[in-house]
Amino acid sequence: MSTTHSILDDESILDDLEVGKRTVRSLPHGGFLFLEHDVPSLLIYRKKPEDNATLRLARTSASYLIIGEDNFDYFRHFLVELTEKMAARFGSFILIEIYSGKTGSTQFVIKGPSHKLPASLKVLATEFEKIDSRRHDVKLTTRIEQTKERQLKESEPLFDIEEIKKKGGTLLGIEIPPVYRDSIGQVYPIYFKSFRESFAQTVQQAIFEFIRVQTSSKISSYNALGKREIHEEVLKIDKQITAIQSSYQFLLLVAPVNIQSLRERFFESNFHEINSYHYRLLPIDPDILKRRLYNLRIDEIDDPALAYLYDQKREEIDQELTMLKERGSRNFFYSSIRLHKDVPKNILAQAKLILENIPENQSSAAENLIDAHDFKKLAEEEFEYFKEQSPDYNGTIHIRKDVNIIMVSQGELYLPADYKMSTQEAQALIQHEIGTHALTYYNGSRQTLSQLAAGFADYDATQEGMAVLAEYLGGGLSGNRLRILAGRVVAGAALIDGADFKSMFNLLHFEYGFVKERAFNITSRMFQGGGFLKDIIYLKGLVELQEYLEGGGELEPLLAGKYSIKHAPLIKDLTERNLLKPATIKPRYLKTKEFQPKMRAFKEGIALSKMI
Measured over all CA atoms, what is the biggest interatomic distance in the chain, rounded to whole angstroms? Predict the structure, then answer.
């Protein structure tokens, strides 16, 4: 016993558990410690052969100890000393040992003082039973055992329960049904991902209940009990996947370079002839990028939230690369359906309602129009507003003859050289393109994860919904602008129903009353690449955003980078773990007098046609 204590003293592992710091190190005898000094909990796992994947469940926790396969006394004494130190600081310390049960078992066995920790054990029992079984006819169950034997029957106890109680510690044992692997130990990788995510969240919720009631810890959410550090291998994956995405500009590569001549010929032929689209040469080989993409070991990321985000992003990039190979073909359209989904019936109904209730304002042609160079000056003013908040902000603007739409790509603004607009439309586009797309790119670039600048999977709809909301909040959303967004949805539904270029143009121009220029712009965008449904997401994203905010969601966290509403809980989780931070710069419209009443009206469900 004295030998063990001398080892601990020599290693000085537990001499100074400084608040706000962490200890990450290998231990003697094959052990490993990852300890957050401000977290009064520890997940424990004993290494054993042929126990595939269970170790990875332990590594999802903020603090965990891996016990080696020899010199068990060393780890026993180590845990007693650690418990004494942590309990002295927090008033109590919870230790949870996890281990896999027998092959074929479908039951979690929770071993602990159920009479003293009813809330924590109830959380474990309730939430474990919600985990999906990999077999449709088998449900996972739980059993709570009131016992002092917290380990597997064939294993030595970590320590005497009364001894650890005197030190201020509480020990639980969780026997896990190894349903994530087959009878010979082969892991089911897809199922294991979802199992691990649910398991980690359940254990964190149970630990939080203990911490909240039994300790002096100031941890305010169970999210904060996830991993507090992004492993360097995850950061490498993040940079690599962003480098792959940044090596091509998807929107630019699917936009035709001959849009002006297409328009001229179509109008000259009295809306009868549309020439072939021509595209930029691909600067990359999609197959080589796909190879690099699938060489990334995303399956080895132990943080379930990050693993989920990067797995989804890889699938999205894969689809985009496939579409670049398919430009100009019908397959591009089918891939676009996979990427952007169908037109929901409620969104189509909203679009038709807008077109029926808001007439086309054709007087805009007589207004004082501004050109691309005038718009550039307005954009530069907005960039200066950002610089006041963050001096290193640097906005770049390109006026190009080979683009047909105003867009922001990788934080830079692209303007068609021949684009003209009203002053109201210009103000709307400033908040749309600069106040949303350029702003979230910059904020994302200030984050630890570069994907928050490049954009996590399915971020487009949320971004465009926020951008249209910014037009409304900034006072620039016009009837014509809202009609264009509705027209895109109607056009998308027509495309899915098999419309060709001329019939779609006629639908918009003659049936819904769009002037020929707007009808052409909507139609030409819908047919780029071979049939591109991206434009349906503007109105779709706005409706989804309204539902999100009506349900209690917050707008400002969405400004911190480019991500989807569906990922908001994961981003909140990562932010509460201090892995991400709030937005660095904020848009101008948040400071206006109209912001609060307009936002209140939007949250209360104002009809979209009333937002102009």
Answer: 97
Rg over alpha carbons for the chain, rounded to the nearest Å, is: 29
Place of tokens 């819908």: 526
How many CA atoms lie less than 13 Å away from 398 in the CB half-sphere?
16
Residue 5, pLDDT above cutoff 50: no
Burial of 476 (0-12, 13-18, 19+ CB in 10 A): buried
Dihedral angle of Cα 264, 268, 272, 277, to the nearest 10 degrees? -20
Left, alpha or beta for 547 (phi > 0: left; psi -120 to 50: alpha)?
Answer: alpha
C-alpha angle with apex 541: 250 to 369, nearest 5 degrees?
Answer: 75
- On the question of pLDDT at 363 being above 70, the answer is no
Cα–Cα dist 58/99, whole Å: 9
As given in the structure block, the two tokens for residue 223 are 């999210």
Residue 187 DSSP label: B
Task: State the Cα–Cα distance between residues 376 and 396, nearest whole angstrom.
Answer: 10
Q: Which structure tokens are listed for 360?
A: 């086309």
CB-based contacts of 55, cutoff 8 Å, min separation 6? 45, 47, 66
Task: State both tokens at 368.
Answer: 């004082």
Per residue in 515-568, pLDDT (tens digit) is 999 999 999 999 999 999 999 999 999 999 999 999 999 999 999 999 999 999
Q: What's the CA gap between 248 and 19, in Å, rounded? A: 45
Quick check: 1 pLDDT over 60?
Answer: no
**Residue 416 contacts by C-beta under 8 Å, 6 or more apart in sequence?**
372, 399, 400, 401, 403, 404, 405, 406
Banded pLDDT at 3 (limits 50, 70, 90): very low
Say if CB 106 and CB 138 are below 8 A apart.
Answer: yes
Alpha-helix residue ranges (DSSP H) falling in 1-138: 2-11, 54-58, 72-90, 118-128
